[in-house]
Design goal:
This protein has 144 residues and is of the alpha/beta class. The chain is built from 3 helices and 6 strands. It starts with a strand and ends with a strand.
Length: 144
């Protein structure tokens, strides 16, 4: 499981011109990619990492200050560019595998007490954000 985490002052995601999810205060925008051997346990581990990640102002975490998260599925995080100029998506899990695991990350965050907004899985999404810092972190978790 892979995530790109950006510290933001605000972020939103729109589908078909309508806002699907938004945060209008400092928090985290999280793009989540899933590969074939990812598990619900790994989703819970990612959620805990995100909730406790100390990258907000003053080295605080979302759990410290109750900051919101906007979580968006992003299969392109598993692009393989080893050959040629056209990415291969073979490392990305198919929708029926990936969607429940992205949902598991969101559910685990909510169970930890997080306020979470989301995109729409598989939709053509338009993401807007104000990156604060800028701070961008890549988290790459592997199944044990």
């Amino acid at each position: 499981m892979r995530a790109v985490v950006q510290r933001v002052t605000q972020a939103s995601v729109a589908v078909g011109g309508e806002t699907a999810g938004a945060i209008d205060e400092p928090g985290l925008l999280v793009l989540v990619g899933v590969t074939h051997d990812d598990t619900p346990d790994l989703a819970a581990k990612l959620a805990a990492k995100l909730w406790g990640l100390r990258i907000l102002d003053g080295e605080k975490s979302c759990s410290d200050v109750g900051a919101p998260l906007l979580v968006i599925s992003q299969f392109t995080l598993y692009a393989d560019l080893a050959k040629g100029r056209r990415p291969s998506w073979s490392a990305a899990a198919p929708g029926p595998v990936a969607e429940p695991l992205v949902s598991a990350v969101v559910q685990a965050l909510r169970e930890l007490g997080a306020r979470v907004q989301t995109g729409v899985f598989g939709a053509d999404m338009k993401v807007s954000l104000v990156n604060d810092g800028p701070v961008t972190i890549i988290i790459d978790l592997e199944s044990a």
